[in-house]
Amino acid sequence: MYAVYLLRAKNGKLYIGCTGDLKKRLALHNNGKVASTRNLRPLKLIYSEFFVSKKDAFEREAKLKYHAQSLRRLKERLRETLRQSSVWVG
Length: 90
Known about the structure:
Layout: E1 2-9, E2 14-19, H1 22-30, E3 43-51, H2 54-66, H3 68-77, H4 79-85
Antiparallel strand pairs: 1-2, 1-3
Helix pairs in contact: 2-3
């Protein structure tokens, strides 16, 4: 299974990623092993979607990253989650 995931940094920034092992990837992010998020730590997982197909997962990640309307729609669906995750606990 492949996961497309959304992380929120303590400073409020969002990060979108895709992986075949979500648990391991989250550990890498929070241990500073991923250059693009090293300065955003700590990070909190706030959303994930799972796919059987690697191609489908990476296409979804690209759509969220490079098509503003797709990300806007996801943010609309996650309005309350995003509001709650802006109050950092832990």
